[in-house]
Amino acid sequence: MKDQTDKQTAELPLNGNVQKKRGRPATGNAMTNAEKQRAYRARTANLTKDQVLRLMIWGEILKSEGKFFREEDEQLLKALIEKSA
After folding, report:
1. Vertex 66, ends 64 and 68: CA angle to 5°?
2. What is the pLDDT of residues 47-65, one digit of tens each?
3. Which one, of 80, 37, 36, lies nearest residue 55 by Cα?
4. Which terminus of the chain faces fewer neighbouring Cβ atoms within 10 Å, N or C?
5. CB atoms within 10 A of CB 76
6. 10 Å Cβ neighbour count for 73?
7. What's the confidence (pLDDT) of residue 38?
8. Interval 16-31: pLDDT, tens
9. Residue 58 in contact with residue 25, Cβ under 8 Å?
10. CA dist 3 → 8, 9, 12, 16, 71 (Å)
11. Cα distance between residue 65 and residue 57, in whole Å
12. How far apart are CA 54 and CA 81, in angstroms?
């Protein structure tokens, strides 16, 4: 309760109005994990030559810095190069 003589304190919304939830509002278009993975696979299956070149350069940068580059990644990169050629 607010004191009747208090002129500085704001009135609290106790009339049953629900306050807005925090955070970003939902759009209703959220994708499931399976849909996200399917979209990712579709995007990576159709790489352009420019994108393959960027992957090759990134792979060379990783190797030159001595970072770990998995054999599966190298095989994937080779397959992408052959596919794009």
Report:
1. 120
2. 777 777 777 777 777 777 7
3. 80
4. N
5. 14
6. 14
7. 86
8. 666 778 888 888 888 8
9. no
10. 10, 9, 12, 21, 73
11. 12
12. 11
